[in-house]
Design goal:
- By secondary structure, the protein is of the alpha+beta class.
- Helix content is about 45%, strand content about 25%.
- The strands form six sheets. The chain has an eight-stranded mixed β-barrel, surrounded by four helices. It has a six-stranded antiparallel sheet with strand order 7-6-11-10-9-8.
- About 30% of the residues are buried.
Length: about 850
C-alpha cells in the first residue's frame, strides 16, 4: 500500500514537471485542447494554453507569471474563491464552480472552473485550472429564468394558471394564477386525471370532455365547477391543446385555466333578473315574484338565506313576507310585528330607513327580544336593506341571513341594493296594478263600487235569486238639489257632500248588500235575497231619512235629500239592464211627485219613460224649428191698476202634440242643458219685444225674465246680458231678472260675482217664489236684491189661512225695512188684491188681473191701461 501511494506521488510530481516543461507531444495536446488550461502554483500562472489566454483576452506571455487575481471580479472574489477552492481541493482533490470573471477589456463573463490538485497531499505542487466559457449559456439561462419569473408573476396577477398532462392525461404540472394566490393545494391534483378530481359537473358533459381528450383534439373554454376545502363553490374555464413529439407521437396536453366565478354569477344574476322581470310583466303573484328574486340573490352568495318583509299600510307593522329558505312559521311569526328600534335588523331598517347590519345577532342590541327567536332558526348574522318607493316611501326590507357570525362584503352589499331595488319595482308594480284594478271597478271620489262592479254583483245576485226563488231589489237614488250646491258652492264642497252621502248610504245597508256610485249625484243599491218588496221599502225609507238630515260642510248646514226609484226581480225584469232601466224610470216618477220620496216601478211608468224620451228628442229640435213663443203676464200697480211690467213666459207649441206645459219640458231642459240656448232666445226675444212697446209710447215699461241656476253660473252670462241689452237698445234698468232662492241659499264667489256685476250694470234682480226656501234670510244682505216676489202658495191662503196672511204681512214689512219692492204672484180674487193693498204691497200679478197672453194681446192691455 505504501509502495502504491509513493508511486502515485512520484507520478504526480513528474506530471507537474512535464507541465512546466512539456515535451513536444504534450505541448501539442495542450495547445489544441478545446478548453482553457493553466498550471497554477502559489496562485500564479506558471503556464497556460492559447485557449486559456484567449478566454481572458490576454497573450500567453502576459499571463505567464501573473497572479490569478488579475482574472477575478474583485479582490474579495479572489480571496473568497481561493478559500473555498483550496479547502475543497484539500478534502476532495478537485473543485468546480460557475463564477463570473473579468477579461482584459474589463467586461465580466461567466465561466466554469475546475481546479484539480497535482498532489492533494502537497498543494504546494500546484493545481491544474481548466476553464470553460459558459457566458452565452448563462445569459440564456438567466433570460429564460427572467422570462419564467415574469410569466409566473403575470399569472399570479391574473386568474390564469398553466397546466400540463402526460399521455395518460395525468397532471404533471399546475402553476400560477388564482390557484397559488388562494393557497389551493395543487399537489393533490398531480398524478391524477381531471375526471378523478372532485368536480361538480354533469357526468354526461364530463364524459364528452374525456372523449375529446382521447381523440387528441384541442378544446377551448371548457367550464366546470369545483369546491375546494374551506371555500365556496367556484367556476373555472380551461383551454388546452395536445402535445406531439418530433415523430408525431402524442405526449399529453398543456393549456391554461382561469376562474370565471364572477362572470358566471353575473350571468346568473342577469338571467335571474330577466326571469323576475318577465314574471312581473306577465302578472305573476307578488309572492311568487319576490320568492324568485330571493332565490336569485341566494345563488350569488354561498350560505345566504334571503327574505322580503313588507310593511303594512299603517307604516308601523309588518304585514307579510317571503323567505323560501326558512320555515313558514318564521314569516308567520313576524306578521303584525311592530317596526322600530330594537326590532331586529329588518324592523329597525324599516324604521330608520337605512341599512342595518347585525354581524352577530346573539350579541347585537338591535335584536333584543328576538335573540331566542333567531337562535330557533339557526340565524347568526343578518343585514337588512330597506325597500323604498320612487316617492321615498318605505315598502319593506330585503334581509340577508347567515348561519355563521360574519360581516358583509362589498359585493354582498351591492347584491342587497340590487335586490331591494328590484323588490321595490315588483311591489310598486303590483300596487299600481291593484290601484288600476280598483280604479277600474270603483269610484275614486267615494271609494264605492262603480257601474261595472255593481252590474257584476247584481248579476250574481239575480242568478242566485233565480236558483233560490227569492227576489232582488235595485234602488236608483238621485240627490235632490245637489246641482245647486255644486253650482253655487263649487265642486270641492260638492265632493265633500258626495262622500258624506256615500257613507250615510253605506250605513243604511245590510251585510251582503251592494252600493255603487254611477257618477254625478246618482247612486244605486242592490239588495239580494229578499222575500218581497217590503224590505226594499224599509231600506228606501231609511235612506230618505238619512239623507234628509243636514250636511255640515265648512261651518254650513246644507240640505240635499233624495228621490228613489225601485225595481224588483223577477217582476220588473229578468236581467240587470232591465232592472236598471225600470229603477231609473221609477226614479223619474219619484221626482215628478215632488222629490224626497221613493216609488216602485209599474208598467205604466215604462210608457211614461218612453214619452219623456220622445219629449226630450222633440225639445232638442224645437228651437231650430221655431216652435217656441213668449206670452206675457202683466205686473200692475195695485192702487192704480196701471201696468208697470210684464213677465215673459215661455210657451211650446209642438206640431204633433200641440201645447206642452212648461212644467213638463222645463225640467228636461234643465237636466239636458238645453236651458242655456233656450234661455238666451227668451232673453233676446223679451228685450226686443220690450223695445217695441217702449218705442210705441210705453217708455217706463220694464220686463221680467226668469233665470235658471245654470244660466247664472254660465261662463260669460253677464257679457251675454250686456250684449242683448245693447242689441235691443234698452237701458239695463228696464230688465228685471228673476232668480230662485235655491241659488241664494249657498252663497259663493261663483254665484255672488255674476249677480253683483249685473246689479252694478243697473239690471234689476228679483227673488222668485220667495219664502219657499230652506235657508236663512241672511242672503238678503249679501246679494244685490231689488225685489221679492211672494209665492202664490201664500197668496192662495189669504182669507183662508191666518198663517199665510201673517207670513205675507211679515214679508211686506221686512221688504219695506230693507227698501225692497214686493210683488205678489198668483192673485186670483179681489179679496186677495184688497188684502195685499191694505198691507202695503205695491205690485201684483195673477189671473185676477190677466192671464199670460201673446204679445199682440198684451199690447191691447197696455192701451187699455194707459
Amino acid at each position: 500500500m505504501e509502495r502504491f501511494a509513493s508511486g502515485k506521488a512520484a507520478a504526480q510530481a513528474r506530471l507537474a514537471g512535464e507541465l512546466r516543461s512539456p515535451v513536444p507531444e504534450q505541448q501539442s495536446i495542450l495547445e489544441n485542447a478545446g478548453v482553457g488550461i493553466a498550471f497554477v502554483k502559489n496562485r500564479r500562472i506558471a503556464r497556460c494554453n492559447q485557449t486559456f489566454a484567449q478566454i481572458f483576452g490576454y497573450s500567453i506571455e502576459e499571463l505567464t507569471g501573473s497572479t490569478t487575481n488579475l482574472l477575478h471580479q474583485s479582490q474579495e472574489a479572489f480571496i473568497r474563491l481561493g478559500e473555498q477552492a483550496y479547502s475543497t481541493i484539500a478534502a476532495e482533490g478537485e473543485y468546480a464552480v460557475d463564477a463570473r470573471y473579468r477579461r482584459r477589456c474589463g467586461t465580466e463573463f461567466w465561466a466554469r472552473s475546475t481546479l484539480t490538485a497535482v498532489d492533494r497531499a502537497n498543494l504546494g505542487l500546484g493545481v491544474i485550472w481548466a476553464v470553460h466559457d459558459i457566458d452565452q449559456r448563462k445569459r440564456a439561462e438567466q433570460a429564460l429564468a427572467e422570462s419564467e419569473d415574469r410569466f409566473h408573476r403575470l399569472t399570479n396577477l391574473s386568474s390564469d394558471w398553466y397546466w400540463e398532462q402526460d399521455e395518460n392525461f395525468r397532471f404533471t404540472s399546475l402553476s400560477g394564477g388564482i390557484l397559488e394566490r388562494d393557497h389551493i393545494n395543487l399537489s393533490q391534483a398531480i398524478g391524477k386525471t381531471r375526471w378523478e378530481l372532485p368536480l361538480d359537473i354533469d357526468a354526461a358533459e364530463l364524459a364528452a370532455h374525456r372523449a375529446q381528450l382521447e381523440a387528441h383534439q384541442p378544446f377551448l373554454e371548457w367550464e366546470y365547477r369545483a369546491r375546494y376545502p374551506g371555500q365556496p363553490m367556484r367556476w373555472f374555464s380551461i383551454s388546452g391543446e395536445p402535445l406531439f413529439d418530433a415523430q408525431g407521437q402524442f405526449k399529453g396536453y398543456h393549456g391554461t385555466g382561469k376562474e370565471i366565478t364572477q362572470r358566471k354569477l353575473e350571468e346568473a344574476l342577469q338571467a335571474g333578473q330577466a326571469q323576475v322581470l318577465e314574471m312581473m310583466a306577465t302578472g305573476a303573484p307578488l309572492a311568487d315574484v319576490l320568492g324568485k328574486l330571493v332565490r336569485v340573490i341566494e345563488s350569488q352568495s354561498d350560505g345566504m338565506i334571503g327574505s322580503v318583509l313588507l310593511l303594512g299600510e299603517d307604516g308601523q307593522h309588518v304585514c307579510s313576507g317571503v323567505a323560501p329558505g326558512l320555515p313558514e312559521e318564521y314569516i308567520h311569526a313576524l306578521q303584525g310585528a311592530p317596526i322600530g328600534e330594537q326590532a331586529g335588523s329588518c324592523g329597525t331598517a324599516m324604521h330608520r330607513r337605512e341599512r342595518v347590519v347585525a354581524s352577530d345577532i346573539a350579541h347585537d342590541p338591535l335584536w333584543t327580544g328576538y335573540h331566542e327567536f333567531a337562535a330557533q332558526f339557526g340565524l347568526r348574522a343578518c343585514w337588512s336593506t330597506p325597500i323604498v318607493s320612487q316617492q321615498g316611501r318605505v315598502l319593506g326590507t330585503f334581509g340577508m341571513y347567515y348561519r355563521t357570525v360574519r360581516h358583509p362584503t362589498p359585493a354582498e352589499m351591492r347584491l342587497a341594493d340590487i335586490a331591494a331595488r328590484m323588490a321595490g319595482i315588483a311591489i310598486e308594480r303590483k300596487q299600481a296594478e291593484e290601484r288600476i284594478g280598483f280604479m277600474a271597478h270603483h269610484d275614486m271620489l267615494t271609494g264605492l263600487p262603480n257601474r261595472a262592479l255593481l252590474l257584476d254583483r247584481a248579476a250574481q245576485a239575480i242568478a242566485q235569486a233565480g236558483r233560490q226563488g227569492n227576489c232582488v231589489a235595485v234602488l236608483f237614488i238621485d240627490l235632490d238639489y245637489f246641482k245647486n250646491i255644486n253650482d253655487s258652492l263649487g265642486h270641492p264642497v260638492g265632493d265633500q257632500v258626495l262622500r258624506m252621502a256615500a257613507q250615510r248610504l253605506q250605513d243604511c245597508l245590510r251585510k251582503g248588500d251592494s252600493l255603487a256610485r254611477l257618477g254625478g249625484d246618482e247612486f244605486v243599491i242592490a239588495l239580494p235575497a229578499l222575500s218581497d218588496s217590503g224590505i226594499a221599502a224599509l231600506v228606501a225609507q231609511k235612506v230618505l231619512d238619512a239623507l234628509d238630515m243636514p250636511f255640515a260642510v265648512d261651518a254650513q248646514e246644507l240640505h240635499v235629500g233624495c228621490s228613489i226609484g225601485i225595481s224588483m226581480f223577477p217582476a220588473d225584469g229578468g236581467d240587470v239592464d232591465a232592472l236598471m232601466r225600470a229603477a231609473d224610470t221609477a226614479l223619474y216618477h219619484a221626482k215628478a211627485k215632488g222629490r224626497g220620496n221613493y216609488q216602485f216601478f209599474t208598467a205604466s211608468l215604462s210608457a211614461a219613460a218612453q214619452r219623456r224620451l220622445i219629449l226630450e228628442n222633440q225639445l232638442r229640435q224645437a228651437l231650430a224649428r221655431g216652435e217656441f213663443s213668449l206670452h206675457f203676464q202683466p205686473q200692475l200697480d195695485i192702487a192704480s191698476g196701471r201696468i208697470l211690467s210684464a213677465e215673459a213666459l215661455l210657451r211650446w207649441q209642438q206640431p204633433e202634440r200641440g201645447y206642452i206645459s212648461p212644467v213638463e219640458f222645463i225640467p228636461i231642459a234643465e237636466e239636458t242643458g238645453l236651458i242655456l240656448p233656450i234661455g238666451e232666445w227668451v232673453l233676446r226675444e223679451a228685450c226686443m219685444q220690450l223695445k217695441r212697446w217702449r218705442d210705441a209710447g210705453h217708455a217706463g215699461m220694464t220686463i221680467a225674465v226668469n233665470l235658471s241656476v245654470r244660466q247664472v253660473l254660465q261662463s260669460g252670462f253677464t257679457d251675454l246680458v250686456a250684449r242683448l241689452l245693447h242689441e235691443s237698445g234698452l237701458p239695463p234698468s228696464a230688465l228685471d231678472l228673476e232668480i230662485t232662492e235655491s241659488i241664494l241659499m249657498q252663497p259663493s264667489e261663483d254665484n255672488l260675482a255674476p249677480l253683483t256685476r249685473l246689479s252694478d250694470m243697473g239690471v234689476q234682480l228679483s227673488v222668485d217664489d220667495f219664502g219657499t226656501g230652506y235657508s236663512s234670510l241672511s242672503y238678503l244682505k249679501r246679494f244685490p236684491i231689488h225685489a221679492l216676489k211672494i209665492d202664490q202658495c201664500f197668496v192662495r191662503g189669504i182669507g183662508q189661512d191666518a198663517n199665510d196672511m201673517a207670513i205675507i204681512a211679515a214679508i211686506i214689512a221686512m221688504a219695506r225695512s230693507l227698501r225692497l219692492k214686493v210683488v205678489a204672484e198668483g192673485v186670483e180674487t179681489a179679496g186677495q188684491a184688497s188684502f195685499l193693498k191694505e198691507n202695503g204691497c205695491q205690485s201684483a200679478q195673477g189671473y185676477y188681473f190677466s192671464k199670460p197672453v201673446s204679445a199682440d194681446a198684451f199690447t191691447e192691455l197696455l192701451a187699455k191701461s194707459s
